[in-house]
Amino acid sequence: MKIDTNARYRTSHEFARKEGAEIVVGISDHAQESLGDIVFVELPEVGKTLKQGEAFGVVESVKAASDLYMPLSGKVIAVNEALQGDPALVNRDCYGKGWMIRIAPTAPAEWDGLLDAAAYEKEAGKE
Amino acid sequence: MAPFAGYDMPISYPTGAVEEHLITRRSVGLFDIDHMGQIEVSGPGADEFVSRMVSATVLDMKDWDARYSLLLDDKGLVLDDLFIYKLPGRWWIVVNASNREADYAWFTRHAPQGLKIEDKSDATYMIAVQGPRAIELMDLVADRKVSEFPRFTAGEIKVEGIPILFGRTGYTGEDGGELFFPAESAERLWTLLLERGEKAGIETRPIGLAARDSLRFEAGMPLHGHEISPTINPIEAGFKWACGLEKDFVGKAAVEAVIAAGPARKLVGLEVSGGVPREGYEVLAESGEKIGVCVAGMFCPTVKKYAANAFVLPAFAKAGTKVQVLIHGKTKEALVVKRPLYVPAYRR
Description:
- The complex is a heterodimer of chains A (127) and B (348).
- With 127 residues, chain A is α+β, with helices and mostly antiparallel strands.
- Chain A has one domain (14-106): CATH 2.40.50.100.
- Chain A has four helices and nine strands.
- With 348 residues, chain B is of the alpha+beta class.
- Helix content of chain B is 20%, strand content 34%.
């Protein structure tokens, strides 16, 4: 499993990475690998404000649909439109071109409660 | 891996389900389908017995012919779907894994004395070789040219000494065949086909259950438990063509009654925008009224569409009708389309 050491993680396998004052959100390499081929990603509207742990979208693999959860509370300021035409970007480059949403955090302190790369790797390794 | 009718089956290989689907459409896919059952019927009265038990016309079949049929109960509901091979002196009937025991019991219960009905599934292994280059691969390895077998016929071949019944049939919409042979040779034949394919420059890969499902779905072939089942009659599912109404068969009276009254619902294809439709999702009219339910749905890799098969009220069954599918609590636009989404090789 590949880990982005700059990111932090939820146990539900979303990652969050700081880029300036904003946070980029997607799913981990472990998540994309266990889901298999991703064929559709439903993302929220830009401007929506969601709380930590709320569902922000759905990822559909060949096998099943899975909800996506906010790693931190925040306002959605961008969504990755490229996933509409090529959802498999999440399989190919989950931390890069397969990012899902960009948020402006409304409770930045929540960052400290997320798993760091080492803790997440240990957690995901148990599955 | 996932449990399926008592077998451990690969959902996908490391290649991934979408790529496996595409490989089968462009070259050769190998399918380990040993879970399928095989029932052999022979003895005095076998022809008349098979004809009475199955929906399709079979008495016109010549030795080595292969034909699709349904197995109906007295109420005209679909117990299973079958591929029937007429071989010299016997009938070879391929049944679905989950129905194997029930089908065998059903045949046995209706059989006249002296008829021999045997479940050959355990001794028989089954592999499918499917794709536009599948026949080329088989010609390379077999002692006979399977390219000379017409579609929907079978023949006996040998591959490095392994005796095989080869049917030019399949469940993907591609050309190719289905191979029946002694179970002890399974691993050797599987490995040989993969190696000889690669050596000859014919891309050949193992294909899992997920791609098997998307291939059959695109090509408009039914999966028992979805488009057909013991709660579905052949007419609403569009299988009048598989009913030999000129002969007598179990369930015929019920089928004729549905034809006379008109089906209460019809199987349609739906193309959906903005989501992946799946089994159990509701179909709504534009007005919001519930008009049906999806029985299968997925992303279709060749036609690159999200599509479903659904039973809907007949008034909404015409191609071009706008409807909606309820996905995760949201209504998504859908269009009734002609099936199949991908025209099978044998119809091109």
